Amino acid sequence: MSGTSSSRVLRASLGLILLALLSLLPLGAQGLFGQFGQAATGALQGAGVINQDQKQAIDQSAQAVAKSFEDITPEQEYYIGRAVAASLLSTRKPFDAQAVTDYLNLLGTSLALASDKPETFGGYHFLAIDSDEINAFAAPGGLILVTRGLLRCAQNEDEVAAILAHEISHVVKQHGLKAIKKDRLTKAVIGVGTTAAQVLGPKELQEQTSIFKDSVGDITSTLVNSGYSRDTEYEADATALGILKRVGYDPRALEALLKVMKTKLKPGGNDFAKTHPDPNERIKRIEKALGGYKSPNPPPGVLAARQARFQAALAGI
Amino acid sequence: MSLSRFCLVALLALSAAAASAASPKQMSVVVKTTQVRSTPSYLGSVLGTIVYGDRVDVLEVQQGWARVSSASKHLSGWTNLSALTEKTIVLSSGSENVNQSASSGEVALAGKGFNEQIESQYKQDGKLDYTWVDRMGQIAPTQDAVSAFLASGGLNEGGGQ
Predict the structure, then answer these.
(1) Chain A: nearest CA to B39, how far in angstroms?
(2) Residue ranges per domain, chain A?
(3) What is the per-residue pLDDT across A180-207, written as a single tens digit (0 to 9) for each?
(4) What pTM was estimated for this model as a whole?
């Protein structure tokens, strides 16, 4: 093999490796990846590994992909979220108690309306799961599931509000969608859909359903197994503090809740402990974020009213 | 080009620019349904409902709320910005400009990509039960119930906004 052809092979290989690395990144890393990708291709071009045309081609495909996340319409987010919830509910039994469902939905809707995304395609809906595990799941678009085990950690309404505000924040920040591996959506979002609501042929339908299934799988396995990154969880905590403040709940309830959870979580457990950062670290960050914030001091009558309805709904949880 | 013709063209261009500056921005409803309210708050009384794909004129924006007007529904009032998009939502195929506009990124095509057909196939393949997902979707406390819940808990009505 001549020197020229071997260096051509090397250049092509490096280009492919770069593209492969970029395709492995989840959608959430797109912003970083866009800058990193261009810097990286610039470096490769500077080093003579790839030429200007190759650099442009790689940058363009990276941008086309980066664009795909924003191209997920709220309607598509809704269908993804429904599938994630259906998948989670296939192995988890709902806790079918009207008083609990009503309370969670009144409280949850009150919080969601104060978020930066009060309205989603299908709206926010809350359901308790009949499980002793300490866990909660937010499916894209606003379907939120909370276990009885987690609800039992809450000592008052403000702490239930803290649980729901954290989950609502995952929806507002679209953390679920960002867990989808980015190469899946290029075909689904950009490739198909030049006409609206077209009826797909059998082959296309199979292909699209397979991409859909894999995307739902990415989110579900993140929620159940790997968890979001620590920074994503800290972001959800910070966003939750804002929602609690706006509504008038004590944001320090999140801290109090984490302290209870800390005593109940089993290290190495197959639940929240596996998918969330250490409560101590979260508490430290919450304290720092709140700084000298003066917690609301509602009159005793108001607190008694909150506690009465909290107990009426969740006493038997 | 003669001077008079140049003046005419310039005048036409100027008046077109003035007309476009004066015409309000249009937005589309990007959620299943949303309300048009009397004030920029969830406390505002509901004047009417607008649905997915409806186009509205945006007359003013204030703290996350848009004052909108829908000529076709004879409605005018406030809608939360989270329910609106600057894109045009195309609900059915057949529009001549769909392909062209879609490529410029201005149009969100309803039903493209992941849609009801995909959901139905996914449900069938995975033998998934959507009963509870559908039930969840129907649980929606009324605005009056939410307001009463907030008031009795000594909390900020109107979602703190």
Answers:
(1) 15
(2) 3-70, 74-176+226-314
(3) 987 887 766 654 444 444 677 888 889 8
(4) 0.81
